[in-house]
Amino acid sequence: MKRNNVQAISLALELAMKKHNNVLVYGEDVGNVGGVFRATRGLQKKFGVERCFDAPIAEALIAGTAVGASINGMRPVIEMQFSGFAYPAFQQLLAHAARMRNRSRGRYTCPLVVRLPSYD
């Protein structure tokens, strides 16, 4: 079956959430609305508000909570509305997520996915 990018992302998220109970999907309008391009549509209904939910429009907060969740065993997939909005999150992503393994001498890792929709 041929899929477009949004359909492929949606299917991948659903399969990951089915297979792994520690996968979280959250960000700006991803719960009720389904994200900017609707890639997360229906996930909240299938997996509940504990695993797919809306976050405030605060990119640094979204990234920071993803760092905390990931070092505590969760596997967050976060989405910001557009790639241009990611700049406030860079401190969390670069200073903390990217360096976690080295800073903790391998004690912690920080596996997370950041989704940044953009127009072609």
What does this 3D model show about the protein?
InterPro entries: THDP-binding, Transketolase-like_Pyr-bd. This is Pyruvate dehydrogenase e1 component subunit beta. Keywords: Pyruvate, Thiamine pyrophosphate. One of its GO terms (molecular function) is pyruvate dehydrogenase (acetyl-transferring) activity. The protein has 120 residues and is α/β, with parallel strands linked by helices. It has a single domain, classed as Rossmann fold (3-Layer(aba) Sandwich), CATH 3.40.50.970. The protein is 38% helix and 13% strand. It contains 5 helices and 4 strands, in the order αβαβαβααβ. It has a 4-stranded parallel sheet with strand order 2-1-3-4, sandwiched between helices. The two termini are 24 Å apart. The model has no long low-confidence stretch (mean pLDDT 94).
**Overall shape:** globular
The N- and C-terminal alpha carbons lie at a distance of 24 Å
Annotated CATH topology: Rossmann fold
| Helical/strand content category | alpha/beta
CATH architecture classification name: 3-Layer(aba) Sandwich
User: What is the CATH superfamily label?
Assistant: Thiamin diphosphate (ThDP)-binding fold, Pyr/PP domains
Assembly state: single chain
Task: Give the tally of structural domains.
Answer: 1
GO molecular function: pyruvate dehydrogenase (acetyl-transferring) activity
Protein name: Pyruvate dehydrogenase e1 component subunit beta
Cofactor: thiamine diphosphate
InterPro entries: THDP-binding (IPR029061), Transketolase-like_Pyr-bd (IPR005475)
